[in-house]
Amino acid sequence: MSVSAPAPIPPRDPYAALRFRDFRLLIVGRFIAQVGEMMVSVGIGWELYERTENPLALGMVGLVQVIPVMLLSLPGGYVADRYNRRWVTLISQVVLICCSILLAILSITRGELGLIYVTLAIIGAARAFNNPAESALTPQCVPPEYFYNAATWNSSVWQMSAILGPAIGGLIIGATHTASLVYITNAFAGSVLVAALLLLRVRQTNYQSTIEPPMVALRQGWRFVRSAQVILASISLDMFAVLFGGATFLLPVFAKDILMVDAAGLGIMRAAQSVGALTMAFTLSRLPPFAHAGWTLLVAVAGFGLATIAFGLSTSFWFSVLMLVTLGALDNISVVIRHTLVMIHTPDSMRGRVGAVNTVFIGTSNELGGFESGVAAAILGPVGAVIFGGLGTLAVVGIIAKLSPRLRQMRTLAAPAVTV
Per-residue confidence at 96, pLDDT binned at 50, 70, 90? Predict the structure, then answer.
């Protein structure tokens, strides 16, 4: 692994990972590209509803993108471990840029809706190959002792893009009354990440000239995750917290029927979790790695469950907003610890496949979480559904704490990287 660094960096330097040239290039390109992706999520939703006035058209957006991710993420992880990850990411980004340009053309010409959905499916397929390869680039840009700091900055960038992207996309649509400029802007944003990837000096290490047959290699990825108790436990905690954490999916119902607020209030509620997560990410970047990381993770996810219950019971708008901020902050602790654990405990030769397993777990839980929340709300009502989700999260924490003694006993995250 080729990592260029300046003079020795203090261990508690909040900007430690940013002092590495390649990580700076990667995270700046990633940030701009993610802002563009978040803009597109607003643009495509606005355009489809404006053209169809059918909520089902919006539901299809998530479906046509998540199916390729679920089907192709594991093959994408295999490709990331078999070929140069920088080039896999770069090619995936070029495909995404072409898709964004195609969306712009379809928007300007009022093209067939079927072609829009086909383009979205191709975007999902490109992300299935992009995500494992791109996530595996971070450990090639910084040494293991700075993985924790790099994870906090990756989380910060994602949360900032989640706040800025929809806002910028909404402003562009409001000014132009069309989504085509949003797609064009996203194409330029993706080009920035392509340029950053071309400038990276990292090279893939632990790269085997021969590799097992694809199916054998894919099974090895699953087996590794199952055998690495702390990775499996951390991924499972995050997955079930998202699966049961139905507050996000039911925000429109709570805003309108329980808290009695308008669209502005709903906007504040939607932003609250990202604000909490971003605040926590910046805070963690200024703190040393957790001394009792295992228990911190368990307590954070348990707190997520309790805050979910409190949100469900609340009839005060500002208390509900406070609980959403708390949810975002606690979820960010879980995300940072999970990403750090995956980077530390995964051999370089398997980062793509492990990242793909992570993508399948978390991506699936997001989609299933929305479905679970809708079904539970239909049976129990929105308040009952959210409380049920919080109680489910607490139950999962108890089960995983009992079944994973290594997670309970895990102390510092500053462990040496695994090698093969």
Answer: very high
Residue 208 in this model has a pLDDT that exceeds 70: no
Cα–Cα distance list, 353 to 78, 132, 197, 223 (Å): 6, 7, 21, 11
Measured between alpha carbons, how far is 316 from 323 in angstroms, rounded to an integer?
11
- For residue 63, count CB atoms less than 10 angstroms from its CB and return exposed for 0-12, middle for 13-18, buried for 19 or more: middle
In a domain? residue 212: no
Q: Is the pLDDT confidence value at 289 over 50?
A: yes
pLDDT computed for residue 361 by the predictor: 74
Secondary structure class of 178 (helix, strand, coil):
coil
pLDDT tens across 123-135, in order? 989 999 998 889 8
Which amino acid, residue 11? P
Last residue of a domain, one of 205, 232, 247: 205
Q: Which domain holds residue 308?
A: 224-413
Domain at 403, CATH number: 1.20.1250.20
Here the tokens at position 308 are 């979910």
Total number of domains in the chain:
2
Q: Residue 357 in contact with residue 221, Cβ under 8 Å?
A: yes
**Average pLDDT estimate for 158-165:** 84
pLDDT confidence of residue 211:
57
Domain boundary among 205, 240, 268: 205
Rounded mean pLDDT, 265-287: 82
DSSP string, 190-230: HHHHHHHHHH------S--SS---HHHHHHHHHHHHHH-HH
- Residue 291 burial (C-beta neighbours within 10 Å; 0-12, 13-18, 19+): exposed
Q: Which of the pair, 7 or 20, is modelled with greater confidence? A: 20
Cβ neighbors of 393 (< 8 A, separation 6 or more) are: 240, 241, 244, 245, 301, 302, 304, 305, 308
Is the distance from CB of 254 to CB of 382 less than 8 angstroms?
yes
Higher pLDDT, residue 168 or 12: 168
